[in-house]
Every structure is written in structure tokens, then in C-alpha cells.
Amino acid sequence: MLLPVLQRRLQDVTLALSLSHQSLELMRQPAASGALARPPGWRVILIERPCAEGCRRATATVIMNTGERISLSEWVCQDPDGTTRT
Predict the structure, then answer these.
(1) Is the pTM here over 0.85, yes or no?
(2) How many structural domains does the chain have?
(3) Which residue, 10, 32, 45, 63, is most buried by CB atoms nearer than 10 A?
(4) Could you list the residue range(s) of the whole structural domain that residue 47 is in?
């Protein structure tokens, strides 16, 4: 009985990480808009905070229906020539 519970947990965490990653990708590509498909009761929160000149820290947090949170963060910086790098 423990194996199916662990398999489901692994699937949930994998999906949460994937949703976090997709949220960060959408943030970098504003032209690619659209809502992410997620299970009922799950929420996705994307927060951007300025940190240094020309840089900001983006964090995508997925909150599962159990209340557990999975987050991914990345730095997004603008070069003087206008090029964005992560």
C-alpha cells in the first residue's frame, strides 16, 4: 500500500516543479501568454523582485491542494545592450 502513495507523491511533486518552470518561462516570454493547466485546488504564484541594477529575482511557487509549496527561482538581468539573460 505504501508504494502507490509514494508514486502519487512523486507525480505531484514532478507536476509542481514542471508548473513552476513553465511559469518562469512564460514570464521571460511575455508574447507567449496563456493559463497553465493545473489540477483542481492548485495555485501558481509568480513574484518578481528587483534586486540589483538591471536585475530582478523571479520566483514561481505552486501551492498544491494539500497546502504544500514547491518553488523555483531565477535571476533575470538586462545587459546594457538590452539583452535579457538568466
Answers:
(1) no
(2) 1
(3) 63
(4) 2-85
